[in-house]
Amino acid sequence: MLTLLFKFLPDFTSGPLCKVSWFPCKAGLCPQSCAAAEPDRRLRPAGSQNRHPSEASRSLESTSSPASCKRVTPVCLKHHQPPGSVSPAKRQITEVKETKITINCVTFPLPGEGPEQQLLKPNEWSYCDYFWADRKDPQGAAHVTGFEVLLQKQLKGKQLQKEMAEFIHERIKIEEEYAKNLSKLSLSPLAAQEEGTLGEAWTQLKKSLHDEAEVHLKFSNKLHTEVEKPLLTFRGDNFKKDLKKYDHHIADLRKQLASRFAGVEKARKALADRQKDLEVKTQQLEIKLSNKTEEDIKKARRKSTQAGDDLMRCLDLYNQTQSKWFEEMVTTSMELERLEVERVEWVQQHLRQYTTLRHETDMFNQSTVEPVDQLLQSMDPAKDRELWVKENKTGEVRPVDLDI
């Protein structure tokens, strides 16, 4: 009877692997037709149509273990060898080098593996090229995503701009206090009795203090309206709300990606369990030949095939979700880049306005002292002496010798 049974079993020692049952087959000899499996290819992501579900399992194993980048994974699983094949001890194991690694549910190529990636915006140091990985949080959290780093940059920029406005405000207060003190000093009675050309120069110098005070007061007013206020009001409270929208959107996509990856891991484990179950039942057939065992093998084979299909569907959903996250990351990071350029240019514009006002103030201050310079140049000590003598002389007749 044993000879009769194996007479009708297919030759499992040669021929390609069946795409459905994952057993060696020759045309028409596998339990299910390979042709019937062709429509299922459309469920698989690009580049995986010809991949065996067990290969998908191995691929996921290679991308789900960050700590074992150098580990190699057997290609041939035990259940590939049905009754009549070589014993498990003599099976050949083919080893392949892992080329991908999954970190925090995001899959990356291993360094030096696969084609070299080109930057999306070469030579621009663009946000969209350098913030894909996560990094450890210095404050103790598990990790900070690259997108969160970009958001922190935006929030820090707004805070620094607020501090710049506070700095300008302090400068304004100094100018106002300076103007007040200059105006007060210009009214001082000190040396008010000076006469002549020197007295005129001294009076003009005190008046120039009053004029200079007016210049500094105008400078402080322009600093407030043309520098401080624009820096302070640039991007109001709605800006933080917009950043939160970006944050929630990208965070939701990462959560979806984590959920899809968990589904892939679950499906991969289910496939491994089905493969193990099929192997056990196959070994039982070698020991005990019965119709029930053969029926169990058929059921186990169908479940294993279904588990492989489920794994491929989960893998397809994961890749689709990661692709969507990738696209949104590129779009949103470039928007944040644009906002940062806009902020820097805005600050540059108004700091230039500060220097312009400062030069104008110097020019106006110069104009206030020009009359003083002119009077100082026209000062004449001889003329001053003449004027003073005329006003204060006590007599022109000189004394003479006394005669007896």
Automatic annotation (TrEMBL):
<protein>
    <recommendedName>
        <fullName>F-BAR domain-containing protein</fullName>
    </recommendedName>
</protein>
<dbReference type="Pfam" id="PF00611">
    <property type="entry name" value="FCH"/>
</dbReference>
<feature type="coiled-coil region">
    <location>
        <begin position="268"/>
        <end position="295"/>
    </location>
</feature>
<dbReference type="InterPro" id="IPR001060">
    <property type="entry name" value="FCH_dom"/>
</dbReference>
<dbReference type="InterPro" id="IPR037957">
    <property type="entry name" value="GAS7_F-BAR"/>
</dbReference>
<dbReference type="GO" id="GO:0048812">
    <property type="term" value="P:neuron projection morphogenesis"/>
</dbReference>
<dbReference type="GO" id="GO:0005886">
    <property type="term" value="C:plasma membrane"/>
</dbReference>
<keyword id="KW-0175">Coiled coil</keyword>
<dbReference type="GO" id="GO:0030136">
    <property type="term" value="C:clathrin-coated vesicle"/>
</dbReference>
<feature type="compositionally biased region" description="Low complexity">
    <location>
        <begin position="56"/>
        <end position="67"/>
    </location>
</feature>
<dbReference type="InterPro" id="IPR027267">
    <property type="entry name" value="AH/BAR_dom_sf"/>
</dbReference>
<dbReference type="GO" id="GO:0048268">
    <property type="term" value="P:clathrin coat assembly"/>
</dbReference>
<feature type="region of interest" description="Disordered">
    <location>
        <begin position="41"/>
        <end position="67"/>
    </location>
</feature>
<dbReference type="GO" id="GO:0072583">
    <property type="term" value="P:clathrin-dependent endocytosis"/>
</dbReference>
<dbReference type="GO" id="GO:0005905">
    <property type="term" value="C:clathrin-coated pit"/>
</dbReference>
<dbReference type="InterPro" id="IPR031160">
    <property type="entry name" value="F_BAR_dom"/>
</dbReference>
<feature type="domain" description="F-BAR">
    <location>
        <begin position="123"/>
        <end position="384"/>
    </location>
</feature>
<dbReference type="Pfam" id="PF16623">
    <property type="entry name" value="WW_FCH_linker"/>
</dbReference>
